[in-house]
Amino acid sequence: FASHGGSIKATLFPGDGIGPEIAESVKQIFDAVQVQVEWDIHFVGKTVDPKTGSFITWDSMESVRQCGIGLKGPMATPIGKGHKSLNLTLRKELGLYANVRPCLSIPGYKTRYDNVDLVTIRENTEGEYSGLEHQVVKGVVESLKIITRTASKRVAEYAFHYAKLHGRKRVSAIHKANIMKKTDGLFLQCCREVAEKYPDLVYEEVIIDNCCMMLVKNPGLFDVLCMPNLYGDIISDLCAGLIGGLGLTPSGNIGDNGLALMEAVHGTAPDIAGKNLANPTAILLSSVMMLQHLKMTEPADMIHKSILKTIAEGKYRTGDLGGSATCTDYTKALIDNLGK
Ligand code: ATP
Ligand code: MG
C-alpha cells in the first residue's frame, strides 16, 4: 500500500445523498483515534469521463489503483443513457471479484436473533449477472449464466484465505448443483479443490433453498458462506436483515493484489439526505474492515468497540435504530466512548 510520511494513503469517495454526512463521521473518528491514514478524497464527476465511460473519473480510478485501498459512500446512479453504471465501472475497472459482508449481531440492538456471526463471500463478476441476455425469437428470451474455473477458483481461494485469517472454522459453499449440474457443479468442484488445501477448516456444501431455510431458522448454523453471484446477492441481503438492516451492514470488495474497496451496503437514502439523520455505522464498520485489511488492528478494534458500546448503551442511537440522535450526536458519543 502507498505510504506517505508514515501514513497510508487511501481513496475516499464520500458519494451522494447521505454519503458526505456519514463520510464526515468516519473522518472525525479517524482523526480522534489518530489513525495513520491520509485520505485522497474523490467525488463522482458531473460529466461522463470518456476514459471510463462513466461519471467516475479516470483520476479517481487511478487513485484507488495507486493506494490499493479505499472507502466508498453510496453513489446515486445518474439517469440517462450513454454511460456505464457507477458500481459496474468500479467493479470492472478495479477487477473487484469478491464481495465480503460480515454480519454480526449488535448486542443491545434487539433483532430476532442474538447469535448472528457469519460472513458471506460472493463471486462478483459472472454467473447470472454476466449481462448476456437476448431474444431468441419473439416470445422467447435467453439469459446466459457463465461460470468459469478462473473466477470460481479465485473467489473460493479468497473465502478460505479469509476464513483462516479471521480464525473462522467452517466454509459452506452454497449452490444448486443438483439442477445446474454443469455451472454450479464447476463452482463446487473449484471450492472442493481449494478446501483440500485447508484441512483445518470444515468444508460443507449446502443447497441454496435449504440454506435459506436454515438461515432464517438458526443463523448460528453458519460461519463463512461462499457463493456464485446471484445466490450471493440474495443471501447477503437476507443476512443483513438478520442483524438489523441496511444502516448496520458493512462490506468489502476485493480485487487482485490485495486491492480492496470497502463500502456501506445501503443506498443514498435521499429521503433523509442533508438532514443530519443518517446512521454512519455501516460505513464506519466498513472503515473498520479497511483497517483490518491494512492489518491496522489496534485502531480497528478501538473503533469497533466504541460502536458496539455506544449502540448497546442505547442513549445515542439514530432514527433507523429507534433513537433520536443526529448523525453528529452519535458520532460525538462514539468519540467519547473510544478506549472505554
Ligand atoms: P438508492 O437509490 O441510492 O439505492 P434508495 O432510495 O434505494 O437509495 P436506500 O438508501 O437503499 O434508499 O435506503 C432505503 C431506506 O433505508 C430509506 O428509507 C433510507 O432512509 C433508509 N436508510 C438507508 N441507509 C440508511 C442509513 N445509513 N441511516 C439511516 N437510514 C438509512
Ligand atoms: Mg436502493
TrEMBL record:
BP terms from Gene Ontology: isocitrate metabolic process; tricarboxylic acid cycle
Cofactor needs: Mn(2+); Mg(2+)
Keywords: Magnesium, Metal-binding, NAD, Oxidoreductase, Transit peptide
GO MF annotation terms: isocitrate dehydrogenase (NAD+) activity; magnesium ion binding; NAD binding
Keyword Transmembrane helix attributed: no
Transmembrane regions listed in the UniProt entry: none
Residues annotated as domain Isopropylmalate dehydrogenase-like: 9-334
Signal sequence bounds: none
Domain of life per record: Eukaryota
GO cellular component: mitochondrion
Protein family (similarity comment): Belongs to the isocitrate and isopropylmalate dehydrogenases family.
Name the record gives this protein: Isopropylmalate dehydrogenase-like domain-containing protein
Organism the protein comes from: Ceratodon purpureus
Shown residues within the full chain: 73 to 412 of 412
